[in-house]
Amino acid sequence: MSQPSALSTNGLSRRKFMAGTVSAAAAAPLLTSTARAEAPTATQPTLRQPVVTSLRINKQAYELSLDTRTSLLDALRDHIGLTGTKKGCDHGQCGACTVLVDGKRVLSCLSFAVMNDGKDVTTIEGLASTDGKLHPMQQAFIDQDAFQCGYCTPGQIMSAIGCVNEGHADSENDIRDYMSGNICRCAAYPNIVAAILQARGETRGA
Amino acid sequence: MRPFIYEQPTDISAAVALASNFTTRDDQPTRANAQFIAGGTNLADYMKLGVAEPNRLLDLNRLEEQKLRQIRVTEDGIRFGALVRMGEAADHREVKARYPVIADSLRLAASGQIRNMASLAGNVLQRTRCEYFRETSWACNKRVPGSGCAAMDGFNRQHAVLGGSDACIATYHGDFAQALIALDAVVHAEGSRGARKIPFAKLHRQPGDTPHIETDLAADEIVTAIEVPALPWARRSLYLKIRDRESYAFALASAAVALDLDGETVREARIALGGVATVPWRASVAEDALQGKKLDEASAGAAADAAFAEAQPHQHNAFKIELGKRTLVRALLETRDMKV
C-alpha cells in the first residue's frame, strides 16, 4: 500500500479533502535529502531540537523529523496521515489507539514516537491485502456486527489480533478478560467476542 | 507537556553516567531533570498531565545487557531482569508453577496492551493514581511539597486506610509489588555510588511528612533486577483482587497469600495487602496470628482483624476495612484449598 494513494482511496469528498490535506502536511516532517544535509551535526542534543525517527509502518519505511514529545499515535495520524488509528482518551485507558509494534499490541498514545525508532508498526490500514481482501478479523467484525459507531473498532481489531497471537483467546472468558483494555461505548461486547471466536483460527500466525 | 531531550544510553554505566550528570544527590527520582523511561505507560501519562516534568528522558530500552530482559530460574530462586515486560512474566511457565501469586498479580494488573509495554521495574515504581495527585490544580503534598492534601476532605473512596499520614493518604495501586513483598524479594540497583541490593520491603517509603519521597532510590540509580528467593511452598500461593469491575481496574482491596501448611495447621504464612495502603503492605501481624494455628474461617478472621487493627478510615473509604478483611479471609481459605 503506497502512502498517498492509500489515503485517497477512501471515497467520499470530506474524507478525500482531509486525506489530501494530511498527505500534503505529511510532506513537511518527512525528511528530504536536503533537509538531512542541513541537520545539525552537534553531538549534544538540545531542547526543541527535532529528532530523526525511522519507522516501518505497514511494511513501508518512513523517516520523520519529530518533536520528542510526539506520541506514536500523533506521528501516525498527524505526520503520516494514517488516521485509522483513533485517539480516544489519550491516556491509556480506552484502547482506541492500539497498534502492533514488532507484532505486539501496544497503546500508541502512551509511547513516544522516538522510542519506536527502527520498529515495525502495523495499523488497521496494514491489515487488508493489496487486492482489497480483508483480514479475517476485519471480516469477522463485519459478519458478527461487532460495532455500532465504529470509533473503537480499529483498536478492537488490532487488540483482537494481538490477543489471539498471544494465545489468550481460548475461551470466551479469556477473550473478555484479555480484551478488557478496549472500551466500547456502544457496548458491542458480545458481538466482539463472537467475532474473535470466528476469526481466531485464521488469525493465528497470520 | 514540557519539551525534553531524548537520549538512548547503550549500557547501564552510560545510563548511570548520564543521569548522574544531570541530577544532584538530593534530587528525588520523580522530580529530577533527567529521568529514566522504559515502558512509559506511567511516565508518559504523567508528562501529558504536567505531573512529571523531566527535561531529559533516558530511554533504557536500548541497554545492551541481555540480563535485563531475562527471567532466570535457579536453585536460589528466580531473577527477573528489570526490562522484562509484565506480560512475559505473567505467561512464564515456571513463574506460574512456582509462584502463582506472582503470575496472578501480573495477570490481574492493567490491560493486555499495558502488560506488553510496562517493564517489571517500572511497574513496581509506578506512582499513585490519586485523583488529586493526577490533576495539577489540586493541592497535593506529594506533587508540590507543602501545598496540602485535597484528598483528606475530598472524595477519598479510593484512598488508603493503612500507612497514611496527615500529609498524604494516596494509595499504592500496584499488584505485583504485593507478591514481591510477601515473598521477601530483593531489588538490585546500580547508581553512581555503585551497585546495591535493597530488600523489597525497604524500596517504598510511607508518606509521613515527606510524601514526595516515594522510594529509597537515588535519581541516578537504575533498578536492574528483582530477585525472589526460592520458596518451594510458594506453589501454594495466590493473589486475590477485588475491584469495581472484574477486569482492568485498580484494586479496592487485594491480598497476596502464600502458605506453608502441615495438614491444616499453618507452619508459616506470607501475607501482603493491596488497594488499602500507601505502600506495598506486608501484614506481619496477620502472619504471626496464624502461625501454629489451624487455618479456618475463625483463625483467618482473627488474622484479618489483626491486619486492619491500626486502620484509619476517612469519609468515603471506611468500607475498605471490612472489604479488606473479607478479601484476606477469602484469599487465605482459597490458598489453603489449592491443589498443589
List the helices and strands and how they pair.
The complex is a heterodimer of chains A (206) and B (340).
Chain A lengths: L2 H5 L5 H15 L5 H6 L12 E7 L2 E7 L5 H9 L17 E4 L2 E4 L12 E3 L13 H8 L9 H13 L6 H7 L10 H15 L3
Parallel strand pairs in A: 1-5
Antiparallel strand pairs in A: 1-2, 3-4, 3-5
Chain B lengths: L4 E3 L4 H10 L12 E4 L5 H6 L7 E4 L11 E4 L2 E5 L4 H6 L1 H6 L1 H8 L4 H6 L2 H5 L6 H4 L41 H7 L3 E6 L2 E6 L22 E8 L7 E6 L10 E10 L2 E10 L6 E2 L1 H7 L6 H11 L11 H18 L4
Parallel strand pairs in B: 1-3, 2-3
Antiparallel strand pairs in B: 4-5, 5-8, 6-7, 6-8, 9-10, 10-11, 11-12
Helix pairs in contact in B: 5-9, 10-11, 11-12
Commentary on this structure:
The complex is a heterodimer of chains A (206) and B (340). With 206 residues, chain A is α+β, with helices and mostly antiparallel strands. Chain A has helices at residues 3-7, 13-27, 33-38, 72-80, 136-143, 153-165, 172-178, 189-203; strands at 51-57, 60-66, 98-101, 104-107, 120-122. Chain A has 2 domains: 3-30 and 50-126, Ubiquitin-like (UB roll), CATH 3.10.20.30; 136-203, [2Fe-2S]-binding domain (DNA polymerase, domain 1, Orthogonal Bundle). Helices cover 38% and strands 12% of the residues of chain A. Chain A is elongated, with a radius of gyration of 18 Å. Chain B is α+β, with helices and mostly antiparallel strands. Among the domains of chain B are: 5-56, no CATH class; 237-336, Enolase-like, domain 1, CATH 3.30.390.50. In chain B, 28% of the residues lie in helices and 20% in strands. Chain B has helices spanning 12-21, 43-48, 86-91, 93-98, 100-107, 112-117, 120-124, 131-134, 176-182, 284-290, 297-307, 319-336, and strands spanning 5-7, 34-37, 56-59, 71-74, 77-81, 186-191, 194-199, 222-229, 237-242, 253-262, 265-274, 281-282. In chain B, the strands form 3 sheets. Chain B has a 5-stranded antiparallel β-sheet with strand order 4-5-8-6-7. In chain B, strand 10 (253-262) and strand 11 (265-274) form a beta hairpin. In chain B, helix 5 packs antiparallel against helix 9 (176-182) and helix 10 (284-290) packs antiparallel against helix 11. The radius of gyration of chain B is 20 Å and the shape is globular. Chains A and B meet through strand 4, helix 6 and helix 7 of A and strand 1, helix 2 and helix 6 of B. Chain B: Keywords: FAD, Flavoprotein. Chain B: InterPro entries: CO_DH_flav_C, CO_DH_flav_C_dom_sf, Diverse_Substr_Oxidored, FAD-bd_PCMH, FAD-bd_PCMH-like_sf, FAD-bd_PCMH_sub1, FAD-bd_PCMH_sub2, Mopterin_DH_FAD-bd. Chain B: Pfam families: CO_deh_flav_C, FAD_binding_5. Chain B: This is Putative oxidoreductase with FAD-binding domain.
